[in-house]
Amino acid sequence: MSESVITVSELTRRFGAKTALASVSLSVSRGAVYGLVGENGAGKTTLIKHILGLLRAQSGSVRVFGLDPVADPVGVLSRIGYLSEERDLPGWMRVDELLRYSRAFYPKWDDAYAEELLHAFALDASAMIGDLSKGEKARVGLLIALAYRPELLVLDEPSTGLDPVVRRDILDAIVRTIADEGRTVLFSSHLLDEVERVADHVTMISHGRIVLSAPLAAIRESHRVGDRVPTLDEIFVAHVGMSAAPPPDA
Question: Beta strands of the chain (E only): which ranges?
Fold first, then answer.
């Protein structure tokens, strides 16, 4: 658990006058589940894009598996499974066609595991991607991210568009299994109750700054009041002044 898979040091990113990330430092150890929590627009996705090498650090540094993801994208991305919030999948393909297409890019693609996930996610292999619901598209994206058994799984708001049963499958079963196999999970979410259920370590980010980062057990214990341990959402509100989750009608 001591080996760092991701090391971010003093990372700052600005878009015009807006500071999206301000001197962010983060270390993610192998074999753990890391929850990155914050309200919409807090900087979670911007941080993930730096980790994936989609954005170059303006100041500070990012290393993944000891490599610069911008300078060596193949060396980094070949070891990462990624599910984006956008679920940008080709609507003109069938599910089985997309799986065959994706398989060609990953020498470690596990056909048996892909088939197992196909059934676990109740997906029709002959269905057109364009005809799938938002939740079904999320499950297809997750299947592709998992099927080559990546060393690092990065999930950006993985519960978006998913019903509660599938959320439970992802967070309680798949995410936990990956970590138990010695691989690493980094997932961002504004649903703190889900993060609290599976994360080993939690990093809270607000307005581009890390306000709290520690093992979940230590966070809960340090905020204990007598016999009562507040929820992660209550702890977030105490540090940020607002809930990470948007209002129900947002």
Answer: 4-15, 18-29, 33-37, 59-64, 80-83, 152-156, 184-189, 201-206, 209-215
In a domain, 224, yes or no: yes
211 part of a folded domain? yes
Which residues, at least 6 apart from 134, have a Cβ–Cβ distance to it below 8 Å? 87, 160, 161
Residue-number span of the structural domain to which 34 is assigned:
1-79+186-245
| Residues 32-47 pLDDT 10s | 999 999 888 889 999 9
The H helix count followed by the E strand count for the chain is 10, 9
pTM exceeding 0.85: yes
Q: What is the mean pLDDT of residues 136-148?
A: 87
The domain spanning residue 212 has which CATH number? 3.40.50.300
Taking all residues of the chain, what is their mean pLDDT, rounded to a whole number? 88
What is the tally of structural domains in the chain?
A: 1
List the structure tokens of 119.
């059934």
| In-domain check, residue 112 | no
97-127 pLDDT, tens per residue? 999 999 988 888 999 999 998 998 889 999 9
Report d(CA 214, CA 89) in Å as an integer: 35
Do the domain assignments include residue 90? no
DSSP 230: -
